[in-house]
Write a structure and sequence with these properties.
Distance between the termini: 43 Å
Low-confidence stretches: 1-8
Mean pLDDT: 90
Number of strands: 5
Order of helices and strands: HEEHHEEE
Number of helices: 3
Helix content: 40-55%
């Protein structure tokens, strides 16, 4: 890949990476955020502390997913799926869709 293309790609994703780090550093219970661009959309996995997640009601879990998901979607113009997973076990606890909808998984 030519260096110019790599630099443009890095700049394009820089704001998203900054927002990802802000979320991890400043959101209670969020311990890690990993993302990958598949070529057609972004796949984002956000990991939450198991004990923190267990203290939230289903409505609070959904509200947290929507706020974080909206923040990520506003940062970059890419289709994306944001899934929330437990830190231990890596089980999906909130499943996102390409349309920005979220479903709490029990």
């Amino acid at each position: 890949m030519p260096e110019v293309h790599v630099a443009m790609t890095d700049d394009y994703f820089a704001a998203f990476e900054q927002e990802s780090q802000r979320i991890v550093n400043h959101t209670d219970g969020v311990v890690e955020l990993m993302w990958n661009h598949t070529g057609s959309h972004m796949e984002v996995n956000l990991y939450v502390d198991n004990d923190f997640w267990a203290t939230l009601s289903e409505a609070e879990q959904l509200a947290l997913a929507e706020v974080i998901g909206d923040d990520l979607h506003e940062t970059i113009e890419e289709p994306m799926i944001v899934d929330f997973r437990l830190e231990t076990g890596r089980n999906i606890v909130v499943e996102g869709s390409l349309y920005g909808d979220y479903t709490v998984i029990k």
